[in-house]
Structures are given as structure tokens and as C-alpha cells.
Task: structure prediction
Amino acid sequence: MAYLKAVGLRKAYDGTDVVAGLDLELEEGMCFGLLGPNGAGKTTTLRLCLGLTAPDSGEITVLGYPVPQRAREARARIGVVPQADNLDPDFTVRENLLVYGRYFGIARSELERRIPALLEFAELAAREHSRIQTLSGGMKRRLTLARALVNDPSLVLLDEPTTGLDPQARHLIWERLRRLTNEGKTIILTTHFMDEAERLCHRVAILDHGRKIAEGAPRELIAQHIEPQVVEVYGEGVEDWADRIGRSAAQRCERTGETVFCYTHDADALVHALDSEPRLRYLHRPANLEDLFLKLTGRELRD
Result:
């Protein structure tokens, strides 16, 4: 059984399609990434799947329940980490978990049994009596993730869970999310961090203007759409170098700001040429999910 299935999903506001005929299907134990520029329809898709927004057309089934018709029953088995932390500042760390669990009708005795493990999961056992205002951004994000697990959900939805966090906090969140999938939890993740999606997601769907433009395992999509080697070149005279050498030695070159991105099947000629250009600096690396994302959605700024 698919844990989540959407067919022909559509939602428009003021005559503009925000979600335009979207099909999705998630299997148990999968971490599935929804990627796209600002305004691509990621958050609206999550709201539709939770039954918080009614679709204009299409069908949604979540954990065997039709949504929005039986969204309340589906949400009882879902954990949600929203974009912005909405912890209650009047309560301590422990009280936030306790009160949130009561919304699901979980007995206090059962919550008291679950909370120590949730605090350990979030590495907040030493801060269980602290007020929310005293926590760092990373601590708040970990508490929000722990709170989403208080009802022992089968499906966890995370909307940009690591935005604004420092590298140490991001890596800790990643480790915890991998632990959840190893335990059999199913995860839907939206993120603007392509390295995050590449590390965590078994499959990704890239959305643009409400439409799905690609779907698959990250490495398979990269191999399908992008040359395997990338040389990033920057410094004084980079455009002149690209015209003289880069565009003939690479399969494809793109300039963004002060950097020229050269995509190629064999970077030896490019690297050799750059070694005799003292004014230029370069980075030679394998192609990644960000290269794929930018090729499919463009490099122009989205508001």
C-alpha cells in the first residue's frame, strides 16, 4: 500500500495554478524530497496532503484515508515539522511535549513514558525544564522534530527543517532523520538545500510552477541529466577565458555572477589549461543535485 498517493492534484489561487496536475506516490520507509524554487508549490502540496487546503481537483489518499474527507483520521498518524517554529513560549521543553501529546488524546501516563526517549532523541534531556526563550535555534528545531514524533507517527512531513541552522545543528538533524527512516518511518521533506536532499532522500520530485518536471533517485537523475564532471572557474578575466578555451573544451558552460560553470565528461583538458592561468581560481568536482536543479529550473532569481 502506498503511504501517500496523489493523482491529478490541482490548486489555483486568483486564476493561477499553484499545483497543476501533480501525481505523487510514496512507499513505506522512504524519504521523499519535494524540491523547487520559491513559489513552485511545495508547501501548498503539503497542505493539500494534510487536508488543510482543499484541492480544486484530483484525489489524495494518505495512510489509506481519503483526504480531505477523512483528513482528521489521517493526521492522527502524521507528524508535522512546519517551516517556522511554533513552540509555546509559556511552557518548558517538557511541557511542550506533554501538551502537544494531549491534543492526540494520549494518556498522560503514556506521555510520561514516551517523553524521556523523545528528549534523548533531540539531545535535550538536560534542558527539559528550560523555557523556550532560552533555547538556541538548533535546540528549538530539534524540539519541534521531537514534538512531531510524540504520537509515534507512521508518516512525518518536514517543511524546510534546517533553514537558518548552523552546520553542526544541520548535521545533527540529518543524523536524526536517517535514524527515523532506519526505524521504518516514512518522510516527506521540502528543502532548498540540495546537499540535504542528496544525503537524505531515496527519491526526489522537482517542482516548478506547480508541475513535476523530474522524479527519481538523486544519483540516477544526475546521471541522466548532467555531465559527470564540473569545473567552477572564477577570477579576473574569467569570461575571456571561457570564450577562448572553456566553451570549446567543455560540453556546456554557464555563467552566474563571477563564476563560469563548465560541464564535461572529461575535465583533464580544462584543468590543464587552468593551471597556466594564474589570475583564475577553480574547483573541480563531480556533478551534484544542485547542478541538476539549476539546469531544470534555471538560474534566475525567484521571489
Remarks:
- The domain at 4-217 is CATH 3.40.50.300 (Rossmann fold).
- The radius of gyration is 22 Å.
- The mean pLDDT is 93.
